[in-house]
Amino acid sequence: xxxxxxxxxxxxxxxxxxxxxxxxxxxxxxxxxxxxxxxxxxxxxxxxxxxxxxxxxxxxxxxxxxxxxxxx
Length: 72
Description:
This protein is α+β, with helices and mostly antiparallel strands. The protein has two helices and two strands. It has one domain. Residues 1-21 are annotated as: Disordered.
């Protein structure tokens, strides 16, 4: 393989690692979007005050979440 070629070999993840990754994703989704999640709380307040908005979310972990609201 020469420099710059893309490898045909797909990376593999153990089933244990895959299960751990899925657990982390579920934890983040619940933290952000669950019934008492941060997005729901803010969304409810904005709707109550009559705002229209869009939400942009980037979550790397439960401790590393970026949220941007675009008010219209």
